[in-house]
Amino acid sequence: MTRYLFDNTGVQTENRFHSLEACYDPFSRRQLARTGLAPGWRCLEVGGGGGSLGDWLGEQVGPGGEVTITDLDPRWTIRHRPPHVRVLRHDIVSEPLPTDGYDLVHARLVLLHIPERLAVLDRLVAALRPGGALVLEEFDCTWQPVLAAPDGGSAALYERVQAALLAQLEKRGADCLWGRKVFAAMADAGLTDLAATTYAESWTGGGTGVGLHHANARQVAEGLREEGVTEDELARYHALLADPEFTVNSLPLISVTGRRPSGER
Ligand SMILES: C[S@@+](CC[C@H](N)C(=O)[O-])C[C@H]1O[C@@H](n2cnc3c(N)ncnc32)[C@H](O)[C@@H]1O
């Protein structure tokens, strides 16, 4: 049974994936391109969500390559694809991968949610060919400074609701600080040539980025009430996210690339 808090059955999922893809795909594509990604590569996109990065990988590797997009619940990836890009309903924690020897394995904002993340990391490393690249991209959920607010109480309200959201995530086994631990975890897993780049931007009320916060808070509204957030606070939080006088730092995405040593068999 999944413990993933924002499961993909929620009607808010489409908006969540839209915000994630619009805000972070250009950055993620740059990180993936830096691995040497080329026609003919075999790639694994784990927890592919809306599938946009898996589709982009498919364009880069061309018909001579192969991309497998997995997800616990891939309902948001259902659309026509070329035959070399396939979608698999798959639990990365409990089900064996159909194959290994990948040139590139990528997962964005997946291991953060999985309590067994270190065991999953070992499986992802084992799925690489010697010399293959792993790219993990994760949030540090704790660094979200408010950059501008319409009044004195708004920053405190934002921080209160976000803290409740993070508390709900942690109760489901998420590690909200995972982003800052990924580099060391990948080194411990035996990867070399490690490099990290972090991306953040400002998100203004009413914009695409804060759509992520709208979607998340709406999907877990009941859990937020359990954390003591009142109906009135929740209503004011959503109004704040719609206010162009409010600007907050985006969640910082820490992208780490490493390679399986070439000498390994
Ligand atoms: C926050 S979303 C990120 C989606 C996408 N990677 C992105 O960054 O746009 C997390 C995704 O991981 C998937 N997921 C969660 N647990 C998983 C598991 N055990 N195995 C495979 N996918 C999982 C969820 O279904 C969801 O689609």
DSSP strand content: 15-25%
Q: What is the global morphology? A: elongated
Structural class: alpha/beta
Please name the fourth-level CATH homologous superfamily. Vaccinia Virus protein VP39
- Number of beta strands: 10
User: What about the largest sheet?
Assistant: 7 strands, mixed
User: Would you list the SSEs in sequence order as H and E?
Assistant: HEHEEEHEEHHEEHHHEE
Distance between the termini: 34 Å
CATH topology: Rossmann fold
Number of domains: 1
Text of the CATH class: Alpha Beta
As a whole number of angstroms, the C-alpha radius of gyration is 19 Å
Q: Please tally the helical runs, counting DSSP H or I stretches of 4 or more residues.
A: 8
The CATH level-2 architecture is identified as 3-Layer(aba) Sandwich
Bound molecules: S-adenosylmethionine
Notes on the structure:
The protein is α/β, with parallel strands linked by helices and 265 residues long. It has a single domain (13-259), classed as Vaccinia Virus protein VP39 (Rossmann fold), CATH 3.40.50.150. It is 35% helix and 22% strand. It is built from eight helices and ten strands. It has helices at residues 13-33, 52-61, 117-126, 154-171, 182-188, 211-219, 221-226, 231-241; strands at 42-46, 66-71, 85-89, 102-108, 128-139, 146-148, 192-199, 202-204, 247-249, 253-259. Helix 1 crosses helix 6 (211-219). Bound molecules: S-adenosylmethionine. S-adenosylmethionine binds at residues 4, 8, 17, 20-21, 47-50, 70-73, 91-93, 108-110, 113-114.
